[in-house]
Write a structure and sequence with these properties.
alpha/beta; TIM Barrel; seven-stranded mixed sheet; globular; 21 helices; 573 residues; six-stranded parallel sheet; Rossmann fold
């Protein structure tokens, strides 16, 4: 028996942890199991053709809100040309209405609900020996008379260590350049009403020996990035600290991404984290809202004051990338309240502020309570909220526009000096700036076209000038700094200060020929000829010293493009 396990990821860089768990857990069965991953950007006919040519007896699709529509279309096509092939669906998008799906789509053979390892193993055993799988716990299918039968809920796997490591060396070869997903636990101690983790009781952990063995395997294979999918990684303080310490002691030139609850961090952990190598860890912190009524209405436990204190401490250390999340459309939060939540979180200076929109997922409590808050949401996946009794569709549309501006001008990280200047000198509310910028894009029709990175600098300058904000000439220097730092080799735009300095390029070469200058500013280039160094650095003139709070003085700044560090070298010219 030949089995294909497959899914459609949202992006090429993503990979499927679920498929690899299933493959490794069922490997001992009398079946050849292969994995193939596609993306939602691939053409349906290409995916269908590729799967067809693999000539398998069973196809298992891992289903999510982002891929279910395409999965159903592909499954329908495959069943028509391979009528004897058994098609199985599993995953969160099909676990909560399996009987309805089987009634609606006759080409689906079986649906696995909930945790899938043991159910898939039992299903393969039955089909390999020509036995009926009807009645298997965790499986919904049809009996010989065509009646849909639900085998009932399967108990969760309590000893997670019985599940083999989801990766081997071949996986790392296949997934080179992609994100590796990993978990040390299943479940979540919290019961947020919008999250499917709240439907699973309790938290189960892999043993520390198992976790360390897996992580060491990643390290030995030089995996670049590992994203932990534990819903609240630091819910167990002792375990989290032990894993942090293990990674600090063993990992180099790697990055580990964790979803954490910032209010659960204590002073000892923050002190320890302040000393970890820069870039080793990055934290995603789901704030979602700072409105107490909203937090209470979604059964969430969060002390924002403590979150803020700890995020500020982490940010000050500067060694851990911080990604903070907000969700628009939650109960009891109107447009004004959301603006306040935005300003609260933005004030913590995260490296990335993710503005998401509530999705009423199948199986979630908030979906069952949709009528209570007068939710209107899309009928088809992704079930995204359109409005509720506190926030209109018009409000949602405005927030969508603001989200795009935040992505372009804040999360990109390439307008840091300019945005900082704008907010410090012109706006008390960051939300107000991003809102006005979104309105500007809409008024100018800029939200309907593709804007290059270079053009975004011009647009920001024109916005600033048309709004008649303070000190446009000084602002242009800050914007020029960002431009030169992140647009290596590009010609300066029309708005950038370009006062000619006689022999400036020659002076730059002389600067780079000076061994003392190289030792002081660019020690990594010691011994390298100036004509080679000049390709990796840049020099620019400014009316204002943007490195010293805009002091009004002619300034020459050296840009090192390999480290993205900059230096005031005026006195050396």
């Amino acid at each position: 028996m030949k089995v294909l396990l497959t899914t459609l990821n949202a992006k090429y860089i993503h990979s499927s942890l679920a498929l690899r768990y299933l493959e490794k857990y069922c490997a001992a069965e009398e079946a050849e199991i292969i994995i193939e991953e596609y993306t939602i950007n691939d053409r349906i006919e290409n995916i269908t053709n590729d799967i067809y040519q693999k000539d398998v007896n069973m196809i298992g699709f891992s289903c999510y809100i982002w891929n279910i529509t395409m999965v159903l279309e592909i499954a329908d096509r495959l069943k028509k040309v391979k009528p004897d092939c058994v098609i199985i669906l599993g995953g969160p998008e099909v676990s909560y209405d399996a009987e309805d799906l089987l009634s609606k789509y006759p080409y689906i053979g079986y649906i696995i609900t909930g945790e899938g390892e043991e159910t898939l193993k039992d299903l393969i055993r039955c089909l390999s020996s020509s036995r009926s799988p009807i009645g298997i716990k965790g499986l919904v299918g049809r009996d010989v008379n065509g009646n849909i039968v639900d085998g009932g809920k399967r108990p969760l796997i309590r000893n997670l260590d019985v599940i083999p490591c989801p990766y081997n060396e071949n996986d790392f070869n296949v997934l080179k350049g992609k994100i590796i997903y990993y978990e040390t636990s299943r479940g979540c101690p919290f019961n947020c009403s919008y999250c499917l983790s709240s439907t699973i009781e309790g938290v189960r952990f892999f043993s520390m020996d198992r976790v360390k063995s897996d992580l060491l395997f990643f390290i030995q294979n030089k995996v670049k990035q590992v994203k932990f999918v534990d819903r609240t990684f630091n819910c167990n303080h002792k375990r989290a600290m032990e894993i942090f310490e293990f990674l600090v002691n063993h990992a180099e030139n790697m990055n580990f991404h964790f979803e954490i609850a910032a209010d659960l961090l204590d002073d000892d952990m923050i002190k320890y984290l302040s000393k970890v190598p820069k870039g080793l860890f990055q934290f995603e912190i789901g704030v979602q809202s700072t409105n107490p009524e909203t937090i209470n209405s979604i059964d969430r436990k969060m002390m924002f004051k403590k979150v803020a204190e700890n995020v500020v401490k982490l940010r000050e250390n500067g060694n851990i990338h911080l990604h903070l999340d907000l969700i628009a459309g939650l109960p009891e939060e109107d447009y004004i309240s959301f603006a306040s939540s935005f300003d609260d979180v933005f004030g913590l200076k995260p490296h990335v502020l993710q503005l998401g929109f509530l999705k009423l997922l199948k199986g979630s409590k908030i979906r069952r309570e949709a009528a209570k808050y007068d939710y209107k949401y899309t009928t088809t996946p992704t079930y995204e909220v359109m409005e509720n009794n506190k926030m209109s569709y018009s409000d949602i549309i405005k927030l969508k526009g603001i989200e795009e501006i935040v992505e372009k001008y804040y999360n990109s990280g390439v307008f840091e000096k300019a945005i900082q200047y704008i907010l410090c000198n012109n706006y008390e509310s960051p939300f107000k700036f991003f809102e006005e910028m979104a309105f500007y894009f809409e008024d100018k029709g800029l939200n309907r076209i593709s804007n290059s990175r270079k053009s975004l600098y011009d647009i920001l300058f024109e916005f600033y000038r048309e709004k008649r904000l303070n000190n446009v000439n000084e602002f242009s220097d800050y914007l020029k700094y960002d431009f030169v730092l992140h647009q290596k080799g590009a010609s300066l735009p029309y708005w950038a200060y370009k006062e000619p300095v006689k022999g400036f390029r020659e002076k730059c070469f002389e600067f780079l020929k000076n061994e003392n200058h190289i030792k002081e500013f660019l020690p990594q280039y010691i011994g390298i000829p100036a004509k080679k160094i000049i390709k990796e650095v840049g020099f620019a003139l400014f009316n204002n010293n943007v490195l010293k709070n805009g002091r009004k003085e002619k300034t020459i700044i050296l840009f090192d493009y390999n480290t993205l560090k900059t230096y005031d070298v005026t006195e050396n010219f």
